[in-house]
Amino acid sequence: MRISDLFIYPLKSARGIAIPSASVDAFGLVGDRRAMLVEPSGQFITQRELQDLARIDIQPGPSYLRLKMEGKADIIVPPPHPDNRMDVVVWKSDVSASVADEETNKALSAWLCRDVKMVFFDRLAKRVANPEWAGGDAPVTFVDGYQILITTTGSLKALNADLATHGEGSVGMERFRPNIVIDCDEEWPEDRWAAIEIGGIRLDLVKPCARCIMTTQDQKTGSRDVPNPMPAMGRVRMSADRRVPGPLFGWNASPRGEGTVKIGDTVTVIEGRPEGWSFKRR
After folding, report:
1. How far apart are CA 273 and CA 255, in angstroms?
2. 37 vs 53: CA distance, rounded Å
3. Which H/E stretch holds residue 231?
4. pLDDT tens digits, 108-145
């Protein structure tokens, strides 16, 4: 098995960036989910409630970010001042984040027709994954819960086969917003992996990923008038374990080392999970 694709999402819930290689540190892939939009109150915003986030392209520069949106003038975002901070909320986590300059926030608010602020996970920000799953001190940025999301091509093929059987179209891997995509022929092998190694880095698969309405949205337009993978996931991937309810696709992973991963790297299973995961029968 090998890595077929790598993605980072510098601005949470905006478009992803396909990359040939990535540095990995304790937080996951470097550059992933280091920025986020929030309400003036500090509550985080995603495509779940603001579909237009899918229309925003982000291009990291050496000392700035460039935001692009069709029909809008580009926004150049300078580095935030570390003393300009606010408390923000990501699910159940409270995080002290640095805030973008006023001009950036005004421009983004005009783009999205609502008041928003752009915030950054900088060196002063602190947040950790749920220790019940990730164990010990597992630092995270603005991700939903864990450092790295892993999916496999074999599992997407199996999901699309079920969609096709029911005349429901097909979906691409971008719907699931993974970081690391592993090319394999087998369907759902990741359920039986406890740990894998890539480029000398151990990745513990700590928790399956429960999926939400974002998988039903086109990741370029935000439209929900597209093939919907949720019915198929409900048929073949509905969790029977109350700890992680709902339809599952992909696994959250925590890195246990640092280094570099790249497309084409060999993926080795170094620890199994023979019992797999419990799913409801159709």
Report:
1. 17
2. 9
3. helix 230-236
4. 999 999 999 999 999 999 999 999 999 988 999 999 99
